[in-house]
Each structure stands twice: as C-alpha cells, then as structure tokens.
Design goal:
Blueprint (H helix, E strand, L loop, with lengths): L2 H24 L10 H23 L5 H9 L8 H22 L1 H6 L3 H8 L8 H22 L18 H15 L9 H13 L10 H26 L1
Length: about 240
C-alpha cells in the first residue's frame, strides 16, 4: 500500500464508521435511533481506531489535513507531501460519506427533517455564534494535535508512525478523540478535521435525497479553518516548549 492509498483508505474507513454511527443514531427507523451522544462519541473514537490501524504502518495515519499541516510545521513531515496527503484524505472522506448514504438510503428517505439528514454528513453548531464556533473547533483540534505530539516522543516512536507504537498507537489517539468528543464536542459537533466535514458536505450537496435541505455552506468554512488554526498553534507551542 502506498502512502496515498493508505491515507485514502484509512480516511474512508474513518468517515464510513463515523458518519455511520451518526446515521444509526439519528435517522428514522434505525436500530440505534436515539442512541445519544455517548454512542456517537464512542463510534467516532472507534472509527479513528479502525482508520489508524489500516493506515498507520504505511503513511503514519494522519487521516486529517490539520494533523498533516501541523506535522509539517513542526518539521516532522515533508511539506512536499502535504498536498498529496490532503487530497487522499478528502477523497477518502467523500467515498466514506457516500457509502454511508448508500447503506442508510431507506432511512434517509424515511427521515423528513432536512436538518437531521445534513447532520449525518457535516457538523453544525448547537448555538450559531461564528466567533465561538471557530474557537471551539480551534481548541478541540489544538488538544488533538498537541497531545498527539507527545505520543510521538522519541522513546515510543516507530518509523513512519507519528502517533507511535505501531498499530497500538491507534489506542491512545482513540481515547484522545473520545475525550475531546465527550468534553469539548457539544458546541459544534467537533469536526476537528477539515476533510471530515468538507468531504461529506460535498456528498450531501450532490446527492438527490428526498426531503433534502441546504448544505449550509455559509458555515462550512468554520470546521475547515478552525482545525487548521488550532493545529498550527499546537505545533508552534510544541516547538517552543522543546527549545
């Protein structure tokens, strides 16, 4: 497996399982309907585990453009590869969201609330306040990236695996993403990953769904920009603390 295919496949699995748990929890008539926030945050955390296990040995399992950029800022990843990794992540996210729609198509058709349909694909604020929504995404991603840097300390790093410990590195980041969702995710739905929101939102825009509403592109820049801001600050702080 190449680095490109690893990032694409790992992100595909991440988004398939992540959007899948949301669909199972909120769409009408599913077995998991009304499962609640604990189910959603747990599902997303385990989705990260699955994606990292697949991609870790080949690409380091960034699965997130903000992580890729942060690693490049910190000198842990070549800038020349950043664009290729982000492209793979976005394609994987698009494919994952499409398969989720295909799997749950009957339940999408049965759900007459366009806001609920959109929530399967993309994040949205509980209270729309762009400044604080942006801050929420930045803080969540800051925690993600800053802690990941400490997973990568020299004594536990395995070659090509930024989160350390080979496939077992999936466990620490899984717990980290779970903690972020439980503690910080209630404001915006914690995208903390530009590809996670952008790819599925594109799919929502293109799909011919029954009861479909707007894709809320006016908000879409928040879960794209916020994670990059938070990741950049985390990388700079990590570098500063090492001096």
């Amino acid at each position: 497996m190449t680095e490109f295919s690893a990032e694409l496949t790992g992100t595909f699995i991440l988004i398939l399982l992540g959007t899948g748990v949301v669909a199972n929890t909120i769409l009408k008539g599913t077995k998991g309907n009304n499962g609640g926030w604990i189910v959603i945050t747990t599902g997303w955390a385990l989705a990260v585990f699955a994606g990292v296990v697949i991609a870790g040995p080949y690409s380091g399992a960034h699965l997130n453009p903000a992580v890729t950029v942060a690693l490049a800022i910190a000198g842990k990843f070549a800038w020349s590869k950043v664009g290729l990794f982000i492209l793979a992540q976005c394609i994987g996210a698009i494919l994952g969201a499409f398969v989720t729609w295909l799997l749950y198509k009957d339940h999408f058709d049965a759900t007459d609330d366009p806001g609920v349909q959109l929530a399967v694909f993309s994040t949205g604020p509980a209270i729309r306040n762009i400044v604080f929504n942006l801050l929420s995404e930045a803080i969540g991603t800051f925690v993600l990236v800053f802690v990941i840097f400490y997973f990568t300390s020299p004594e536990i790093t395995v070659q090509k695996t930024p989160i350390g410990m080979g496939s077992l590195g999936a466990l620490p980041v899984t717990l980290l993403v779970w903690a972020i969702g439980l503690s910080l995710g209630g404001t915006t739905g914690y995208a903390i990953n530009p590809a996670r929101d952008l790819g599925p939102r594109i799919v929502h825009t293109l799909l011919p769904m029954r009861h479909k509403g707007a894709s809320d592109w006016r908000y879409a820049w928040v879960p794209i920009t916020g994670p990059f801001i938070g990741a950049g600050i985390a990388a700079l702080l990590y570098m500063g603390l090492k001096i």
